[in-house]
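User: Please predict the structure of the protein below. I'd like the answer in structure-token form so I can feed it into my own downstream comparison script.

Assistant: Understood. Taking the following sequence of 671 residues as input:
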Amino acid sequence: MTKTAPHSDADDQTSGRVRWRAVILGLLLTVLICAYTPFHNCFRHGTPLGGGHFPLAPFFILTWLVILTAGIRCLFNARTPLTGRELLCAWVLMVIGSGIAYTGLARTFFINLTAPYHFATIGNNWAAVLQPLLPDGWYPADRQAITDLYNGLPGGRELGLGALMAKIPWQAWVRPLLGWAVFIFLCYGVMIGLTNLMSRQWLRNERMNLPLLRVPEMLETAFDQQQLWPFFEDRFLLAGLSIPVLLHLLNGLHFYFPQVPQVPTLVLAGPLFPQTGLFAGFYKLKIYIYPAFIGFAFLTTKQISASFFIFYLLGCLLTGLLGLLGFAIPAAALGTTFGPTLSHPEEMQMIGAGGIFFLFIVWLGRRHIVDIVAQVAGRQAAPTLETEWISLSGAFWTSLGCSIGLVAWCLYFGFPLLPALFLLGAGFMLLIVATRVICQGGIAYFTLTAAPIDGIFALFGSRFFTATGVLMAAVIQKVLFVDLRETLMPSLMHGAKISQATRQKRTMLTGIGLVLVLSVGVSFVAMLVLCYRYGLRELNLDWATRTTVGVYENVQTLIEQPMTPNRFVLSFAIVGAVFMLALVVAYHRFYWWPLHPIGYLTAYSSAARILWFSFFIGWACNTLCMRYGGVGLFKRARLFFIGLILGDFMMGGLWALVGIFMDTSYLVLPD
């Protein structure tokens, strides 16, 4: 009789199994994160749990899951319930879902759906100008439900959860939430399809590195090889870990007990520079110190990290140079714009630069695009490779079907066809560019400079959209296409990379679909419960309210004073396109070229303003290690910088736990 060898952890690791227990664990933890995030971020004012593209809560949970699972294996000398790859899959599900509960969707969503009614006054005349244009079905019809959303239900703070939920006017929200859910999930469908289409080119053909996955993958490797304790005992890692631990221990105690001294993590360097002359662009310069982002910069290629801070400093220098040469253009010349950080006309270079970089991405993948067309036409076999959840033809039809659904959704609510096509095309083009920047650059915190419709209005003017189209475009853009700090697509690309080593790719795809549905539903319910208990105006949503009201004010301006093509904006957009073209040609043709085009795309973003110094320190340390110690020193020193990342995120998670029992919470990472 033949005996069957017992199944071991090594079998699971080498076979790339992902069992449903890992998916279910990821779903449950994502639901908990989405349920708690609005309260923690908006009421406790804490470090965003799902902020950025390397969010705090998922990584904090992953680290402790790895430690606890390894401890179980060591104490009981038994098989681990989950392999390192399965823990990583659970982590990426949390990453995908966690951003939806805040800036990725819910942070501004309900303000967007209520602002034109709640903030309408006799002075701004929104009742006459905007409200007749609002699509039926986008907004709640019950005005009292809107008032209670901002003020809170009477006695809502004293009600239990069940009683509070029973008093929430759900009937007022059913129709708008269902209508917007169709739009949101169609957009997510397009993103999943595009990610599947691009993953073969980016991950397999171009061998693109994903720096934000370095630390989770090292944890996975150490766990699977049973080297976790030597990994954490490494003296380089412990040295790096100690810096953010001591920094945030001291500053966190100062936050709650002001008599405790603190270590400044923000230096105002602007006063060192004059407000006029060549260096006028530096008079608002700030130096932020974030150990985790220094670690990410060290792990990123030197070319990218150098480009990130060099182009930011060159952008500041350009502002002063234009003034010195007599070409300073007032901010009013921008006209009406929707970009998150636009403040000067020269920043509109990013419109042209983004368009050229998108064409560069397409050009790099030209052979891959030919393969897609051949497979869709049935002239070529359609195998599903290790980077893909489904076949290329399946991904193509998914993207196309969801795109047609989005256009139909826009037409149903009265959006003109041609403007809808332009808006959706520009929106997804920018998402692809942003995904490349975030994933290849290892930029955990990224923001756009110009919004999608800024470029369209600069080229064609606003009359092209009609009054209704302008309003609908601005609202749609605000929902998913303008604030990309927690946008979904980069997380999906990270998920595709992690799925490479797994066999059950359909299991992962099913898990991603489930986590998206649960995250949207739980986030909406959690935000409504929070607003009706405390009142939206009492929450930490001043930025969300201000920017959303600004969108409707800009819409009113464009309706009353339609925008024509802007020659200043067009001039700088052309300059940006020409400069980006020169950059991509040099980057692609000359192996010695020191600058990466990604850096230029971030030059005027708030991410560059906050993180430029961290990238400078990370680049300098990387350069010194490679120059004087070679690869050997780099491999040893990188554990120090991984320690910086671990320490920052562990302290962020610990202070978030402390914030549960306090009235407010200490911020570790940027909001």
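That's the full token string. The longest strand covers residues 266-268.
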